[in-house]
Amino acid sequence: MHKKTERLDMLTTDKLSVARLVLICSRLGIEDVIFSPGSRNAPMVIAFVESKLFNTYCIPDERAAAFYALGMSIATKNPTVICCTSGSAVLNYAPAISEAYYQGIPMVVVTADRPVEWIDQGVGQSIRQNEVFRNIIKSSFQFTEEASEEQDLIANDTYTIDAIQTSLNGWPGPVHINIPLQEPLYNQAPFVEHPLIQISDIVEKSVDIPELNRLQKIWKSSRRKIILMGQSTPKPMLHHMLNNWVQNKEVILLTETSSNCYVNGAIQNIDRVITNFGASKTKYQADLLISIGGPIVSKKILSYFLNNKPIYHWHVSRESKKDTFRALTDYIPTEAIDFFKEIEPDESLNELTFQNDWEQVRLHTSLRHNEFINNIAWSDLKLFDIALKELKDDMVLHMGNSTVVRYIQLFNQNPQILYLGNRGVGGIDGCTSTALGYTIKSEKKNILITGDMAFYYDSNAFWNHHFPSYFRIIVVNNQGGGIFRIIPGPSSTHQLKHYFEAYQEGDAHYLAKHNNIDYKSAHNEDELKHILPEFLDDSKGVKMLEIFTPREINDTVLMDYFNYLK
Amino acid sequence: MHKKTERLDMLTTDKLSVARLVLICSRLGIEDVIFSPGSRNAPMVIAFVESKLFNTYCIPDERAAAFYALGMSIATKNPTVICCTSGSAVLNYAPAISEAYYQGIPMVVVTADRPVEWIDQGVGQSIRQNEVFRNIIKSSFQFTEEASEEQDLIANDTYTIDAIQTSLNGWPGPVHINIPLQEPLYNQAPFVEHPLIQISDIVEKSVDIPELNRLQKIWKSSRRKIILMGQSTPKPMLHHMLNNWVQNKEVILLTETSSNCYVNGAIQNIDRVITNFGASKTKYQADLLISIGGPIVSKKILSYFLNNKPIYHWHVSRESKKDTFRALTDYIPTEAIDFFKEIEPDESLNELTFQNDWEQVRLHTSLRHNEFINNIAWSDLKLFDIALKELKDDMVLHMGNSTVVRYIQLFNQNPQILYLGNRGVGGIDGCTSTALGYTIKSEKKNILITGDMAFYYDSNAFWNHHFPSYFRIIVVNNQGGGIFRIIPGPSSTHQLKHYFEAYQEGDAHYLAKHNNIDYKSAHNEDELKHILPEFLDDSKGVKMLEIFTPREINDTVLMDYFNYLK
C-alpha cells in the first residue's frame, strides 16, 4: 500500500531495503552522505544521490572520508553517513570510528557487503564484515539480504531507525549498518515514498539522580570544591552558572582549552598551575571534585588527582561511566546543567584559604609565563605565543595531535574562538581531514595548527573535490615527533632519533603544490611576524604556512619554561 | 635459573615478558621488525633494536607499515613483526592484516596497550584492543600485564610461541599479540638469555586423504579434466608434473598470471578464451575440475564455472575450505604436489575432442589478440602491450589493483618474471607499500604497475628512510577509477563520473618530487616507446613513469577487443 509521490520522474535503486534506508535517513534528519568509490555500494550511491534529499560527497580514501564525516558531524551535531564498498575499504574507516566513539560524535557507517553466502568462499573484496567494528562502535546491524517480503523489509527498516537513533541518544557515537547485496547492483526503479514506515520518537527519560539529598549534603559540606571541564562545545547556560560560582568563590574551576568554557577567574592553564605546586600538593587538594563533559588533555591533572585524591568525585556526563582518577564516588549520566538545576546547590561554607591558594598560583604562574615567553629563543613555544595572538576573533581553531594541543593549553584562551581537536582517542591519524570536514559545514574562518608528523600522516586529506571556503593550515615542522623530545623517557634510549622522534628533513612544499594550495614558509620570529597578517587575511580559499623550528632546542626551552614557572 | 650470556654489555627493556618475546622471536626465526613511532611500544623498540638480532625499520604511517610487512613476508616467506603504540594507531594495521589473512601470508602484529584497568576510563590513546582484529586474523593473544612470576612469564612465552607457529602453520596468516604495559616504559635492564623457554616443534601431520580409492577412480573415469591454478609462488615440482599432463593431453590447465605457473600449452589468458566460447559453452565443460592454490582474479572464470558446473570439483589448497563455484565435492587441505603424489594418477581415458576444442579457442584468440592489438588507438590496452614487452627477464612485477591486474592477465606471461599482487582481498589500499616492502627483501629488479587511484591512495608509501635498491613505478593515469568504465553497470547511472570513476585531473609529478623520485611522463605511444628503455635501465634507485591514457577511449577499445576475440 505504498502511496506514490508526485516525484514520478525520480529514480532510486531497485534494492527495496536500500531505497527505504535512504528515505528513513531523510526522515530522521540525516543531511550529509560521504561516498568512497566502489561497485558493491552502487545501490546506495544511486539511491542517495538520485533522491536529491542530501548533500553528497565523494572522497576516495576511506580513512580520510571517515575523518571528514567526523568533522562534519562535530559541526552539524547530526550523524553524517559514510558509505563504501566491501572488503578492506571498510577497515580503513576504523580509526575515525574509534575517535567518534570516544569523542561522542554521531556517525552512521553504511558498508556494502558481498552476499552472506559468498563470505570466505574465495571471491575478492570480501571479508567478514558483520560486527567487524564491535570493539569501537555503539551498535552494529546487518540487513537481511535482498529483502522483498514486507516483514523482512520492516526488519531492515527497524535496523536503520535503531541505528540512527542509537547514534544520537545519550552519549552520541558511531553505528554500523552492513548491507549484503547481490548483483546486479546498478538497476534503477521509480522513486516511491513509504509512508507506512513507523518511526517512533524516543523520549529520553530524565535520569533519576540517586539519593539527591545525599549529594546535596556533600555539596554543602564540601569546603574545597573543584570543577574540571573536559572537552565540550560551548554551553552558555552552564557557563553562566559556573561563572557565578567562580565569582562567589564557591568553586575552583579548571577549564581545558578544548572545553570551550571561558570564565573569568577560572584556571585556564592547568599544566602551568600544577607545575608550580611543588611539594605542598595537599594544600590544593579538593574534598569534592566534579568532572564534566568529555576527554581530558592534561596529563598533569590526571597525575595530580591520582596522587591527591578528592574525598568525593562525581563524573557528570552522558559518557559511559569512567573512573579517570580512581576516586569516583558517583556517576551521574546526564547533562551537567540538568544535574545542577536538580540539586539546586545553595551557597556552602567555603574555605577561603583554599580559594586564595589556587588564585595565588594562577596569578603567579601567569606572571612568570609572560616574563619567560617574552625573552625566549625561537622555538615551538615562541611560535605559539606569536601565532595564537594573531588569530582573529570568531575563528575556529583545530588543534592537531598531540604536541600542538599541549602547547596551546599553555596559553590563555580567546573567548571568541572555538577550540576543537580529536581528543577522544587522540591519534595523529586524521587531524587534517577532520578539520576540513568541519570547515565544509562551517560559516566561520577555520584554521588548523598541526605538527609535521600529523600533517604527513593525513596527506590524502585534500584528495577530493570539496574545497572549503576559508581554511588556513599552519604546519609546525620540528622535523619529527616533537612530543618524544618533551616527554621524559625517550631521550634515555639509543632509539630516540630514529624510532621515537622519527626524524625527518622534509617539508610540505610539494604536497601543497600537489594539492594546489598556496604555500609560504617561515624560519624565525621575524619571518613569522611578517607573514602572519597576510596569511590570516580575509581572502577565501586554502593557504598553508609551514613554520620551521629547531628540534634540538624546543625541548630545552620547554623544560626551562616549566622550571621557571615553579 | 637464567644463564647470562657473554653479551653483558647489551641492554634490553626491564619488562620481562617483552624481553622474552624478543628472544623467542629470534629463536623462531623472525628477522624483520617494523616499528611505527609511539611511546607505549617503547619497551619493544628498546628490546628489539638493542638486541641487534633483527633488521629493524621505522615507518610512521601504520597503514603503510603493515603493507610493507606484508610485502616483506611475501618475499621472505617468514613472519614480519609490526609493532605500534596503543589507540587508533592499531586500527590502521587492519587493511593489510585482512589482505595477509586471505592471501595466506604470515605476519605477527604486536600492539602495545594501556594497562587493562585503564581501558574505557577516559585516558587517551586507549581503545578495546583485545581481539580487535578477530574477524580478519588467524588468532589473537593478550599478555598478562607486567608478569613477573615465572608461571605468568611462561604463559606469555607460550602466547608468543603459539602466535608465531600459528602464523606459519597450514595456510599461513597474520596473528595478533596485544601487550598491556604500565609506565615507566623506557627503563632498561641487562640483556639476559632465557634458555629455559621450551619451544616444541610442530610436526604437521600429513592430511589423511579420505577415500583415496574413490578419488583415484574419479580421476581415471573423468574424461574432461581441468586444473585451475590460483595465486601462488612458483612450485617447480608441481609445474613439472602439470607440464607432463598438458603435453600428454591429460588435462586442460588454466593458469592465472598470479599463479606464476608457466606451462607450454596451458591456457594463460583465461578471459580471452572464455570470451570466445559464445553460446556453446557446454562444449568446454569439465567433468572434473581441480582448483589449486589461492585467490582467483578472473571474474569470467568464476561466472563460467558457476553456470557450467563440473561433475566433481576438488579444491586442493591449505586455505580453509571454500566453494568458489558452488560445485565443491572434495576439499583437500594439503599441497597439490603431495596430493598428486599420493593418488598417483595413471593415464586416463581422455576425450580428445575436448582437448582440441580448448586448444582451438586458445590458438584462435591468441591470433585475434595479436591482430587487434597491433592496430589499436592509444589506450590502456595499448600501453600494456608496449610496456609488458619491454620488461626484463628476471624482474619481479607487482600488479596494482584492480584494473592493472586484469589488463595484465590478457597478455602472455613471461616465464622469467615473477608476478605478484594483493589478490587476497584485492583492495587498492596498499599496492605501493606492499611492493616496496617486498623490494627491500629482494635481490631482483622490482617494478610496480599501478593505477592513479591506487597510487594516490597509498601516497604515504615513500614516507620513511628505507629506500629499495632497484624500484620502478609505472602509474597508469586514466584520470580516475578506470575499472568503473569497463565493468557493465556504472555507465547506466548519472553517478558514473563523480561517484564511481571518481574523475580526477591531477598527476603524480609533485608527489614524486616530494619523495625525491626521478619522474618522467608519457602521453602517447611514441613517447612511451622512447622513454621505456631509459626508464628500465640498470641504474639503481627509484624511478617513476606516469603514463596518461584517454579515459573516454579506454573502455571502448576494451569492449571492441573482447568483441573481436569472439
What does this structure look like?
Two copies of one chain form a homodimer. Chain A is of the alpha/beta class. Chain A is 37% helix and 17% strand. Chain A has 21 helices and 19 strands. In chain A, the strands form four sheets. Chain A has a six-stranded parallel sheet with strand order 3-2-4-5-7-6, sandwiched between helices. In chain A, helix 20 links the parallel strand 18 and strand 19. The interface between A and B is large, with 89 and 89 residues.
Summarize the structure in short.
The structure is a homodimer of 566-residue chains. Chain A has 566 residues and is an alpha/beta fold.
SSE blueprint and pairings:
2 copies of one chain form a homodimer.
Chain A (H helix, E strand, L loop, with lengths): L10 E3 L2 H12 L4 E4 L6 H10 L3 E4 L3 H15 L3 E5 L3 H4 L2 H10 L3 E7 L25 E4 L7 H19 L5 E7 L7 E3 L21 H10 L3 E5 L6 H12 L4 E4 L14 H6 L12 E5 L6 H9 L4 E5 L13 E3 L3 H8 L8 H23 L5 H11 L4 E5 L3 H6 L9 E3 L10 H10 L4 E7 H6 L12 E8 L5 H4 L9 H5 L8 H6 L3 E5 L2 H11 L5 E8 L2 H15 L1
Helix pairs in contact in A: 1-6, 3-5, 3-15, 13-20
Largest sheet of chain A: 6 strands, parallel
What's the total number of strands of chain A?
Answer: 19
Largest interface (CB within 8 Å) is between: A-B, 89 and 89 residues
Gyration radius of chain A (Cα, Å) is: 26 Å
Judged by helices, strands and strand pairing, the structural class of chain A is alpha/beta
* Multimeric state: homodimer
Strand order of the largest sheet of chain A: 3-2-4-5-7-6
Distance between the termini of chain A: 75 Å
